[in-house]
Amino acid sequence: MKKLLIIIMLCAPFMMHAQEQDYKERFEQLGTMLPTPNSYRTASGAPGEDYWQQKADYSIKVKLDESSNKVTGSETVTYYNQSPHPLNYLWLQLDQNMRAEGSDSELISTATFFNDTIPGKYLEQYVANGGNSYDFPGGFNIQSVKNANGEAMDYLIQKTMMKIRLPQALKPGENISFSVEWNYFVNDRMKGGGRSGYEFFEKDGNALYTIAQFYPRMAVYNDVEGWQNKQFIGSGEFALTFGDYDVEITVPDDFIVGATGMVQNAKEVLTKDQFKRYEKALKSTEQTFIVTEEEAIENEKEKSNKYETWKFKAENVRDFGFAASRKFIWDGQMVELETKKPFAQSFYPKEGNPLWEKESTKAVKNTLELYSKRTFDYPYPQATSVHAASIGMEYPMICFNFGRPDENGEYSVRTQLGMTYVIVHEVGHNYFPMIVNSDERQWAWMDEGLNSFLESNVMFEYYPDLPYNDNIPQAVTGYMKSSKDAQRAIMTNPEQVLRLGPNAYSKPAAALNLLRNTIMGPELFDESFKAYAQRWMFKHPTPADFFRTMEDASAVDLDWFWRGWFYTTDHVDVSVDEVKYFRIAQDESDMEKNAKAPKGDLGEKEEKEMKTDFSEGPDYITISETPSFWYGEYRNKVDDEAIEARYADKHFYEVTLSNKGGLVTPLIFNIEYKDGTKEEKYIPAEIWRKNEGKTRKMLILDKEVSKIVFDPEGELADTDQTNNVFPKAEGKTKLDEFKEKGE
């Protein structure tokens, strides 16, 4: 029998690389795209031996005037210069100034008449004044800035920032104390939106206040940006300095207040029975009502003209927020973690029931449990969920969340789902960025994306019966294959992002779910993710610190992954172009069946049409006697006949694939055999390293194949599953079913 040597398959990868015309180097190391490591931030992604950060302590007294919806406050700030640099001035954030007349957020707002009939609310809120509407006198009124001796200090207000000019430089290791007095009007969120403000209930004439960004706050000064004094114009959230807070909040004496930190005078501001319930709740793993619905309803009936002061203390937090209303029901329970026992609690009006008393505190508990398992035990003494209409916003130890039944107290599964996942998400923000303190003004995905990823993990583990399908690869395919004119890379500043939801939340979360569940595996990913969280808790990480830590702790080269998913708008669309079937020829009759041997290469024009099914059966190849030049200097030889015998019963399937979307990806094949059995094959993304546009994979199998499907479950975020199946036009994939259900 004449032997035919098949060399072309061995050489094909190199020939493909040489012939590829659009080589974009997606496997190039990030290299100079990341900042150079130094003694502050190491190449491993960990803080260096010279890492430093500033500290700012606050003593705040604030009064909420219900009749005028006005906040009046004073603060003493003690700022510690722990940097190696002398500072000639300090920068503070005045975020309420985004609502001032003539602010940048007003001037740069854009809107359109989407129809010839529009709602009045749309006209006033979005068209007329860019959110600073309904003749609202927004913005801080700074009354004074004084030093520790009570002397006026020189300051400059630059839009949403305030610069305090120091008479002499604040040297390394020194601290300075100064005081600020201010006031501002609280916005009606229903009319103008906003991350904080009040909601008015017409039926009983009461308001529910969710108050944040209510005081001048120190900006971050660090080794990466210097002063982080980028203006606040709406989308980019906050970069803040850790410190200790003593806060006194004066409100009508029939108000209940929830806030960052622990209340210090609960016995004074609660009734005797409420205080007993509060002390019981702090120690009990069972839900306990501190203020009952009946008490809250009774409290709504008359408005007190008297005021009282609630006192709170919080240590090592980056911000402070509070909520206040006479409408609040209050319940809570202790959560048992491995090393901590924080208090989970909820504040909500009767309009939130029966949903909120059933689900809110439980969701807080579930979040603390899973996030602690994946990162570190929740270090703060409490975590609070507050119900307010149409909002989801977070602050240390407290968050404001939507999800309201109708007026009859009935609610749909959709309402329950929305309310549950927003609580999980906002409570989860305690970890990212309240503790792992990334810069939200620059990198929205570092808190929103990481947090949305863990949110999805809580939902899948604790709420399998709710129809939650967010933040997974299947859910972002529509966005990723949309017009590139409508997208920006994840690494884009949030103010320049076109669609913040998919860009900062769902796409990075989907990427991390893909990384955990498919590429790295849960054990290795969780260990690496925990290393990042624990390295940077109570510190200021950057994207490079995250990228480097994930690789450093796993020994997995992920530069291709960060480059593709985070720095580009490429998407996954892999086409299974052809599958060729081969067997080893056993005799002359096999060769006669094989009319012509396989020819050509991916870079050459094939002499025959691409195969679309397995109907022609296998092509046959023969094993030749290995020529002497294959051995080089070796003096021994392989046994060609033994090799032929070893592969005689094998089935060879050469799968040809095209990368149409540009985003390199691992390969997952579901292989169905003629005997009805199935098998899954996983191939790392590095298979594209020599040619990012086309590749081949030879599958050597024990049985004859009837069908091969790429990405059968949609877990790789492939955007076009119609070209994933061979033989062609073979049935629906899981992603097809996912899309048809509208999930």
TrEMBL record:
UniProt keyword Signal, yes or no: yes
EC assignment: 3.4.11.-
Molecular function via GO: metalloaminopeptidase activity; peptide binding; zinc ion binding
Amino acid composition bias (Basic and acidic residues), ranges on this chain: 729-743
Record-linked InterPro entries: Peptidase_M1_aminopeptidases (IPR050344), Peptidase_M1_dom (IPR014782), Peptidase_M4/M1_CTD_sf (IPR027268)
Signal peptide: 1-18
SUPFAM superfamilies, per the entry: Metalloproteases ('zincins'), catalytic domain
Domain of life of the source: Bacteria
Domain Peptidase M1 membrane alanine aminopeptidase: from-to ranges: 407-565
Alphabetical list of PANTHER family matching this protein: PROTEASE M1 ZINC METALLOPROTEASE, PUROMYCIN-SENSITIVE AMINOPEPTIDASE-RELATED
Name this protein carries in UniProt: M1 family metallopeptidase
Source species of the chain: Marivirga arenosa
